[in-house]
Design goal:
By secondary structure, the chain is of the alpha/beta class. Strands 1, 2, 3, 4, 5 and 12 form a six-stranded mixed β-sheet that branches. Strands 7-11-6-10-8-9 form a six-stranded mixed β-sheet. The protein has helices spanning 2-16, 18-21, 23-40, 67-79, 92-101, 114-117, 149-155, 170-178, 193-200, 211-217, 249-262, 265-278, 283-293, and strands at 48-54, 83-89, 105-110, 121-122, 128-130, 134-138, 146-147, 160-163, 183-186, 206-209, 227-232, 239-245. It starts with a helix and ends with a helix. Residues 1-21 and 25-44 have low confidence and may be disordered. The longest helix has 18 residues, at 23-40.
């Protein structure tokens, strides 16, 4: 700025008195001054282009199909021209493959586990919060309201339906891997509703799912009155969904921007207020308190 002021004040005199220094010297002096001016002026940062792998593509029209998408778009809107999101349809298996192959891929609403952190950089703050998964059973009135997975498969001899490629929690994922013969593992996230149908048909004994998701998905099913949601011990207050990006410089820049947006009062309030209306009374307060507490560390 001082160079600019100097040029504004003295350029006319410099040109008028160029004979003192000589034309060649004057050209060098002016060129050097302009060069210094360009270096000192702040550069405009370019928009960060991010490929978002998901099963929801806003460009195809319509409103966001789930709350996590709404929250991601709100965070991006808060960042303005700093980031540009391009949604690309992908299965759960393909989205993680693309994240490893490309340098500018982000996923969202993902559980943060040590295994996943090897291949991705995660946001510090959550984008979404859920209650813990429930063990959903049909026509089994004698099982206690809260059990462990160990009791479920060995004492009650349950075959439990889960979706391949989905992370339920670090502990549950490990348990499923070690006891996979007791689980019906359905390939393909889009086939997840089939698990509920199989449960009503008594083809499997239980399903791991969020209570709100299951109750909304099958609210018109004739057998809903015989459905029970069992707590899995030990039960967590909430499960968080994070943003995960390619473990590259671009990915790290994206995560830094997302964390900045998520931490703003506007985005946090939007998420908290929506979470209060999403889940059942009592459960919602616990989830929102856990969500807000995640920003205090």
């Amino acid at each position: 700025m001082q160079i600019l002021i100097f040029l504004q004040q003295h350029a006319p005199a410099m040109f008028n008195n160029s004979f003192i220094f000589g034309p060649a010297v004057m050209k060098t002096l002016i060129f050097t001054s302009i060069l210094l001016l360009c270096i000192c002026l702040p550069a405009h940062s370019e928009t960060l282009d991010i490929q978002v792998m998901a099963d929801f593509v806003p460009q195809d029209g319509g409103n966001p199909e789930n709350e996590a998408t709404t929250f991601l778009l709100a965070a991006a809107a808060e960042l303005g021209d700093e980031i540009s999101l391009h949604f690309i349809p992908a299965s759960r298996l393909r989205e993680w493959q693309q994240l490893r192959k490309m340098n500018n891929v982000c996923l969202y609403n993902k559980l943060k586990t040590p295994e996943r952190e090897v291949h991705a950089v995660f946001s510090q703050y959550p984008l979404m919060a859920f209650p813990s998964n429930k063990l959903v059973v049909f026509n089994k009135p004698t099982i206690p309201d809260a059990i462990t997975l160990l009791q479920a498969i060995y004492y009650y001899d349950l075959t439990i339906g889960v979706t391949k490629g989905r992370s339920y929690s670090e502990e549950i994922d490990k348990f499923v891997r070690l006891n996979d013969e007791h689980f019906f593992i359905l390939d393909g996230a889009t086939n997840a509703p089939r698990l509920g149908q199989m449960l009503f048909q008594n083809k499997i004994d239980a399903v791991l799912e969020y209570q709100t998701v299951f109750s909304n998905r099958y609210k018109r099913a004739p057998g809903m009155s015989s459905i029970r949601y069992l707590s899995l011990k030990p039960e967590k207050a909430a499960v968080f969904g994070y943003i995960a990006c390619s473990p590259t410089e671009v990915g790290k820049q994206a995560i830094a921007l997302f964390d900045k947006a998520l931490k703003t009062e506007k985005v946090r309030t939007l998420i908290s207020e929506r979470l209060m209306t999403l889940f059942h009374e009592g459960e919602n307060t616990q989830i929102v308190n856990a969500f807000n507490a995640a920003f205090e560390h």
